[in-house]
Records
---
Amino acid sequence: MSVTATAIPSSPADDAAHPLPPRLLGLTHLANNIAWSWNRDARNLFREIDETLWQQLQHNPILLLRYVPAERLATLAANPEFCARYDRVMRWLAAEHNDEHTWYAQTYPELRGKPVAYFCAEFGFHNSVPIYSGGLGVLAGDHCKSASDLGVPLVGMGIFYRDGYFDQRVGPDGWQTDSPDSFDLTSVPIQPVPGIGGEPYLTSVRTFGRDVYIRVWRMMVGRVPVYLLDSDLEENHQDDRPLLSKLYAGGPALRLRQEWLLGVGGVRVLQALGIAPAAWHANEGHAGFMLLERVRALCADGVPFDDAVKQVRASSVFTTHTPVPAGHDQFSVEQVQECAGPIWEEMGVPAEKVLQIGFHPSAGRGVFHMTAACIRLSRRVNGVSERHGAVSRVLCNPLWPDRKADDVPVGHITNGVHLATWMANPIMQLLDEHLGTVWGAERDRTMWERVLTLDDEKLWGTHLRLKHVLMRLVREKARQNYRKGMLQSPQLVGAGTLLDPHALTIGFARRFATYKRANLLFRDVERLRKLVTNSARPVQFVFSGKAHPADTPGKQVLQSVYQFTRDPQFEGRIAFIEDYGMHLAHLLVQGVDLWMNLPRVPLEASGTSGMKAGLNGVPQLSTIDGWWEEGYDGTNGWAIEPEVDDDIGDRTADRLYTLLEEQIVPAFYDRDDEDVPTRWLATMKNAIRVAGTQFTGRRMVEQYVRAYYAPAILGDALQDDPPVS
Ligand SMILES: *Cc1c(COP(=O)(O)O)cnc(C)c1O
């Protein structure tokens, strides 16, 4: 959701950014490190500059500093209280440049300064930088943020998608239309990295018979630099200039080139910058060519191919995120040969030997399977939840045909979410008061137990405030879109304008992929109608999410859900909010009463939005899949047991209605004399406790360091266990 020109106030001085008052000069620096987004004082500082503008610009500090009137800044520069708050933020920012007191520096002093490269095809850091599409990107962003907090010397590598992802509009007929989401380079916190010797590019990669020159943008994520590759250069053939501009667009041929440029280009860029990683992490198969390029580079230095493969394996980590065979990136070997050729010449081996690296017995000889390639070139491999680890061992079993699935060397590290990004300010304040001020850095179980003694009325009051923020935003968004002619009057009800802040509000927001089954709720329309329209105990649902532009079945699910939002029999209690992204995700996970997730088991590798909700005291109702198998403990939400033969979902739907009717609605409306739902609050507190103890990015990155990064850097004598070749 990019900021459209209409959101920006017009004033004559618009484009000529006025200089900041000398007293507040550091604000530019602050706005250019995305760490501001997870520091409460920094966020508050920007908000204080101009609250209305801050909202309108969807929390983009670079634009805020450009559009705020100079007089306002002058006033603030003369305000001692503001300046004191400013100074405090500046001290924090300065400390961000030093990692001496971090967990990593204290736990692994000998590993300080040894970089860990982290490659991923997308990164979701903040709404103002739209180079992500969904869960994988947001997870990668949270990984970098948590690494920064912990002092892990991570270096990110990704792609600078100039055209962003896409803006979603849903027409009166419920059909999603996708409009480009390009963004203004001067509105995002990225800096161009100069090339060597005055060239604009840092490296080049040969593909399909042409050299593609690559330039690089750097984004600072706290202490972690993330480099983003870009091929839009005059030096490139005009067909190659847009190769990296669009995220997940085009067919496999374009995907292949993007992955090739990311992997090969990324390794060369690090080398050009003089960064020599001691461990390398490929996050999902898209990043796999990074491993191959390192084999090539070693061979070019005279290392024999088989030894090069061993060396690369020893220092590499691969995380798979896909629980179904079809979800793994696969290319035809002819395509790969055309794209990559002739790197085998430099490797001193026949092409077949290189292509063999991507051989997966289940996919056949003609296929280069990215997951198989990553597994052959990484000694450490993991899935993203306990259940997904087990599913991955089965999927990968053909690579170790003489073993039982349980003995396949694929582990798991369950995903986590970056607490300071996802927990709402008011909840953090409540925890400050209750737990003391250092709780954010703690992973101590007994400390999180103390959440259970939070004051009921305070927690409920805080939650209601957040719920109001959500409903107000939903109404304002509808109002703006109506004004701009993007919503017609009959659509206003479906946009959530009739939502009632007192009613039990259930959120469902995620990619509209068919396996996520957003439409399962409507299996029995009459039963649902009774639940929703009960005048004493009403229930409302807020949906949000994009379908991938090429996913027609996903768009059909969205359309069917959308039509219910307009159906008068539901009294305006079912809403669909357009253009799901990180901004909306924040408001939803913080402002609904219950988070719903209905993936067809076992198709959700982990899922993370329910963890974000949990941190805000929003319990989850979900099928037992992904993280919920570990996360659900009977106190922190509700679970729908998997039904083995329930492909069509009838039994899951029945269980869903029953849980709502018999447990969830009664618990929510069971109030004491002060109208406080004591029973519900116990579930809320447990949701915070479990998410805080087990599902933060801190826990996740600590595990990656202990289990994978540190051993890889130290070259531990782990027995090597490669798959068959
Ligand atoms: C967290 C998040 C996701 C991933 O949510 P799931 O629970 O894995 O479906 C997707 N999109 C956005 C914008 C998010 O913030």
---
Amino acid sequence: MASRTWHFLLALSLLSSAAYGQLSPSFYATSCPLLELTVRATMIAALLAERRMGASLLRLHFHDCFVQGCDGSILLDDVGSFVGEKTAFPNVNSVRGYEVIDRIKATVELVCPGVVSCADIVALAARDGTFLLGGPSWAVPLGRRDSTTASLAEANADLPGPTLNLDQLIRAFDKKQLTPRDLTALSGAHTIGFSQCQFFRDHIYNGTNIDPAFAALRRQTCPAAAPAGDANLAPFDAQTQLVFDNAYYRNLVAQRGLLHSDQELFNGGSQDALVRQYGSNPALFAADFVTAMIKMGNIAPLTGASGQIRRNCRVVNS
Ligand code: HEM
Ligand SMILES: *[C@@H]1O[C@H](CO)[C@@H](O)[C@H](O)[C@H]1NC(C)=O
């Protein structure tokens, strides 16, 4: 009796102390053994067509997880009276890759219909995008289910913007139980991809912590007077723009952060030392990035009987 109780308690504590909550990398091992191969193959095709898509899908996962948790809520279209997150300021005309998620979902539905959530597909696509652009790989904890709701208000409130200062960034991540170290590691995602001029204009014209030569270079394709050139793109990392490396941090040390929020991580504050470390130690960055991605991927997932497995990632099952 006592021993049975003890075993029960041990099992309970093992379950609840598992590093990734209720998610597990082997969640679909029997129900969809070809899942990861299917996602990978579709991602390779997508990146062959457009290499930037690896960056775009990494960002999509971030924007999913910071709003209601990693539940695929960002994928829901506005239809009829339903208002989703796609028109929120941080997402509209900015988040990309919805069609690639549709393609992966369609392919996965062919292999194992009705089994795999859109939220898990987004998490796998983010991992594959990172890896296929030369970054680290990791086993993605799986078993998320899809939301039946979305929140435009939470997307506007909780997704950090490029004008935030370090305190505000730390608070935005703390709200999702992510540490300042997670913030600095995850921001390394800005080693790949691009930003529109409208998000860094103020920084390159009015910023005080910016290399003058870098500011002059970026002004060439980002005119001062909005809305001219608002959507013009500049790479976050000019030298290796679609290679997932640690150059982002060396750029910050050289005052060549593209966004004001990027440069806030190296501006005489609490993250300076870590930025220098990541810039000189790629293995440390890779390890911390993986740890932080797994933490971010574990924000408030729907599991068990909560939510649903959407048939179409854009609409709630009827
Ligand atoms: C720390 C706060 C963050 C802020 C303020 C921020 C802001 C931005 C902005 C303004 C853009 C450009 C969007 C556009 O031009 O349409 C961008 C792009 C991007 N962000 Fe972030 N971001 C943050 C954190 C993250 C995190 C945590 C990740 C992923 C782990 C991430 C991944 C990316 C990627 C990969 C791109 C390039 C996307 C592409 O080229 O399509 N960002 N971010
Ligand atoms: C620079 O800052 C001033 C004062 O806040 C503002 O009026 C102006 O629009 C800013 N310039 C750019 C290019 O963002």
---
Amino acid sequence: MSSIYKKYQLKPVINASGRMTILGVSTPQPEVVEAVNLGLNHYFEMQDLVDKTGAYIAGLLGVESAVVVSCASAGIAQAVAAVIIKDDADLLLNLHAKPIHGPCEIVLAKGHNVNYGAPVATMVALGGGKVVEAGWANECSAEELAAVITPNTAAILYIKSHHTVQKSMLSVAEAVAVAKSHGVPLIVDAAAEEDLRLYYQLGADLVIYSGAKAIEGPSSGLVLGREQYVAWVKKQGKGIGRAMKVGKEGILGLTCAIETYLLREKESGEQMVAKMRPFIAALNEIHGVSAKVVWDGAGRDIARTEIAFDQAALGRSAVEMVAALKGGPIAIYFREYKANEGKVEVDVRSVSDSQLTTISEQIQQLLKEKLL
Ligand SMILES: *Cc1c(COP(=O)(O)O)cnc(C)c1O
């Protein structure tokens, strides 16, 4: 394995940032790898594979219908195309070329119009949609969302994510109520969320997950929801979906990953806290560095270590520390959203105990170098 790093001159990475696309997201369990391998080594009637794995996943989750797609971004684009194209066979093949006569506006809260690594609005545009923002940068109520719905509205899009503004935003349940009272579908992007049933049960018509994030599958995505809407998503394979094709290995890998994900005893936030304790103690020994437990800002059961770097004591800002740790012989990646406030977060889910030791040693080493 280390030969891969050598052969292509790649740096080893400690991923303390969570499920991050820039580092390859996650490392699937052996049974998922086996399912991918099986997929790679056999032929299938592909339509049957798509339909039957989708039905199997739907059965596991207690939802009407489901389909595996290439990633959550592809899920957003194809869900948007689905609610705009519906059964229009001509538009399916000519979304790029023909004027859209039916509703094509996708309404979302302004605070949900984020960049998660690529902009939400880009995916909406790929699906033929036109973004219409509701509310303000810092707030969107149910009334503010409802106010921008017109006969041109094709769907409401709700982004359930830590990337979005969290304060003064309507809930998914409130978005469902607005969608129902206006007779428009609700699409929920729950890419990194852990509950595969909740948003469907709340009443969303389509819900989108990233296959490699919480589910820890191969690069893939899951779209689930009401029968008719999922059927329209599936049709996109003959249109824009072809540019986002998912292979048999991805389909079988994700189906297996969902099944094991549902059975697996999840590492609890409390277990993460226990794992972090010696690490936090070691960090607090370092002059100018302080560490403590913080809980996930989006409300998931994830505990992380917050490290604060005291710039006055260290002569280095958190931003400089982050850059130096990435630049070392082993690239160490933190969650750096608050680096400009002097803090970073360590997500320990993909970090071994010995790697935690490496991290605290690297920090100590860097600060020592500074003193010389
Ligand atoms: C990660 C993410 C996506 C994209 O998921 P991919 O599977 O990488 O395409 C979309 N929306 C949100 C909120 C995300 O966090």
---
Amino acid sequence: MEVVGILLKLDEMMQLKQVKQQFRVLLWILMVELATSATVDSFIFNNGFTGTKLILNGIASITENGVLRLTNDTEQSTGHAIYPTPFHFVQPSTGKAISFSTTFVFAMIPQDPVYYGHGMAFFISPTTNFSTAMASQWLGLFNVNDNGDSSDHIVAIELDTILNHEFDIDSNHLGIDINNLKSNLSHHAGYFDDYTGDFRNLSLVSGEPMQVWVEYDGGEMKLNVTISPIQMQKPKRPLLSLVVNLSSILLDPMFIGFASSTGTVVASHNLLGWSFKMNGTAEALNLSALPSLPEAVLLNEKGKRWYLTTLLPVVVSVVLFIGIVVFIIFMLRRINFSNLLEDWELQYGPHRFSYKTLVIATNGFNDKFILGAGGFGRVYKGVLLKCNTEIAVKKVSHESKQGMTEFVSEIITLGQLRHRNLVRLLGYCRHKDELLLVYEFMRNGSLDKFLYHQDKPTLNWAQRFHIIKGVASGIEYLHQNSVKAVIHRDIKTSNVLLDSELNGRLSDFGLARLCDHNTDPTTTKVAGTLGYIAPELSRTGRPTTLTDVFAFGVLMLEVACGRKPINPYKEEANQISLMDWVAENWQKGTILDTIDSRLEVEGYIVCEIELVLKLGLLCSHPLPESRPSMRQVVQYLNGDTQLPPLSLAYLSFRVLALQQNAGIDLYPISGTIDSFVQSSDQPSEIIAEPYSDEGFRCRV
Ligand SMILES: *[C@@H]1O[C@H](CO)[C@@H](O)[C@H](O)[C@H]1NC(C)=O
Ligand SMILES: *[C@@H]1O[C@H](CO)[C@@H](O)[C@H](O)[C@H]1NC(C)=O
Ligand SMILES: *[C@@H]1O[C@H](CO)[C@@H](O)[C@H](O)[C@H]1NC(C)=O
Ligand SMILES: *[C@@H]1O[C@H](CO)[C@@H](O)[C@H](O)[C@H]1NC(C)=O
């Protein structure tokens, strides 16, 4: 019995042990089951990646503040971050791919706003070993050989930022890649507005955090990808929606993670948060809990730096350039079309023309419209379009101070003077170094042309006499009638213009000086034209009304004889000086021999011619006090007063001079005399000296 009892006990004990063993095995299996199901189902990284057991490959790292940095600014690099445990994407019983869902927040920070890295991808892969995957366009997922190989069993969602013509639609897109970087479906980055349905572009490399959702519905075999800026709710309409049977692609188990690459251009690809769930919807990320990018500050700095180094200088230079251009245009306009204002200009303001008006009037100072070139500058013909008035515009260069003085003088003089035998100054304009005087247009040009140019018709005596009387009246007005006595100082045939009715009109008051009545005119520079300069003027340099009378006397002889005051190339020595020649003939009683051969001399005309010749001699008397005043001249010409006989002293002086010096004396002869304007700079060319008891002699 005892033996049977021991055996039973032993059997009992054995059975218990077995049960226990069985129990233990069951328990272990249970525990393993529990453990695996608890860890593999889902995860969320909401507060950064610090301390997580993610597998990091390549240059992937976790920054101090918990950002998962897949790549930094290292060129030609890859970076991977892989969840350490694989997931069962396939239902063992049916072999069907299970639904899954993941969402993540990323930020791509370009090193440079123009050039940046290749992008990143979320992937599902049977392996954690990407050592053979390549950088740049291969995104750290494939290489030249295994791209497109169905044995890869890789499903990826690419966020591609560089256009690679082999694979890509553009340089800013999302794509669903199955074993191949050539996406099965891709779309320009952006989202569809929930309300309007409009597509809104996003820039993946903006540096701004963006959220992506990747969801697979195992039942419908539909893979949806959605992206939106971080501030937004998930858009209802996915960006990508692809029906794909992942059962054949996904193995069991599979790892999930991110891959990223840089090329010769770089960007840091960052992951801020990540949530994943098998067979359900991934837990939503608490966006306010995400780690902040260290570059948030840095980026601003970079941006600022970029603004400072690139944008700012460009903007500044553009602004400067525009400013300078505007300034130049403004200045040009100022210089061109308005001019410096001076006291006297204000006084005579109404006469002012704008430069623009004159440019238009003269066809841009076209050479075709040059009327002549005087001692001061060119004269252009113009038409004032507004009133259809013909004008003459005299361009006076005033680079020299002298020119300016003369200009002002002329303006003031003319501003005050109105006489039918004076060329009226309509206005003026100042432009840069030029002064422009606007005159009435004198259709017939200057008197000297009629006297000496073959192409002009010969003036008959009546016309000549009318001109002489007109000019005399004009000079008289200057000397007597105006508020201030004006000495013309440059009376000569080329300064007498003829209007359409052949009235003589004095022009070119450039040398005129104002001087008060009855006061001795201040000594001024000797100026005038040789042949017309009174002997005492060259000696004293003092222009007076009587020096004007002298010049007018010469002019009268010129008009009557049709000869220049000095004819240096005349073979007959006594004909070199017109005055001497006339005087000589007058003395011989052959004065009519001197008159212009083109004139038909008949009847009473002879008296007029004689009057003019004698008056001419009287006016050009070497002694100023023997000359008549312009008032007297006008009276003689009008026949109001009888011309007194010429003094014997005058004649004897003349004849003596002729006999002694063969008649060359009163007028210096050298160079181009009739166009030569004597200025104070060459006073030595004329030496006047007292001669005998009552006359003067002028020598070269
Ligand atoms: C990029 O990251 C790697 C690995 O963390 C590091 O060795 C390298 O210095 C970093 N390069 C730059 C440019 O930040
Ligand atoms: C979005 O980007 C694409 C490609 O650059 C462009 O063709 C399209 O006009 C853009 N759309 C909007 C709304 O900006
Ligand atoms: C999906 O692919 C698996 C494996 O190739 C196959 O067995 C299954 O029939 C496919 N399902 C559909 C709906 O085509
Ligand atoms: C989200 O994160 C913030 C900051 O960590 C926290 O204050 C807030 O309670 C969180 N919200 C939720 C719904 O968890």
